[in-house]
Amino acid sequence: MVTLYGKPHCAQCEATKRLFDKYNVSYNVIDITKDSSALEYIASLGFMQAPVVVAGDDKWCGLRPDMIQKVAKVAA
């Protein structure tokens, strides 16, 4: 299960979604501007920028093509 915590009009969020789509990785998107508990959750992880991706034990923020490829290999 992959969850992307993002916000509207976020270039890195959109680029992350495009890469997940390119690699056929299923993911859920949570809008942190509408879900305060999600915003609190990612802050508790120590992240201060969007997107934040949680994929199993892997967690990262920002556009990380290397991590997206890693998740895609595991999902394949």
Could you characterize what this model shows?
With 76 residues, this protein is an alpha+beta fold. The protein has a single domain, classed as Glutaredoxin (3-Layer(aba) Sandwich). The chain has 3 helices and 4 strands. It has helices at 11-22, 36-44, 65-75; strands spanning 2-6, 28-31, 52-55, 58-61. Strands 2-1-3-4 form a 4-stranded mixed beta sheet, covered by helices on one side. β3 (52-55) and β4 form a beta hairpin. The longest helix is centred in the first third of the chain and has 12 residues, at 11-22. It is globular.
SSE order, as H and E? EHEHEEH
Number of helices: 3
Q: What is the number of E strands?
A: 4
Strand order, sheet with most strands: 2-1-3-4
Strand content: 15-25%
Biggest beta sheet attributes = 4 strands, mixed
Features:
76 residues, alpha+beta, Glutaredoxin, 3 helices, 22% strand, globular
Question: How are the SSEs ordered, and which strands pair?
Answer:
Blueprint: E1 2-6, H1 11-22, E2 28-31, H2 36-44, E3 52-55, E4 58-61, H3 65-75
Parallel strand pairs: 1-2
Antiparallel strand pairs: 1-3, 3-4
A few lines on this structure:
With 76 residues, the protein is of the alpha+beta class. The chain has helices at 11-22, 36-44, 65-75, and strands spanning 2-6, 28-31, 52-55, 58-61. Helix 1 (11-22) links the parallel strand 1 and strand 2 (28-31).
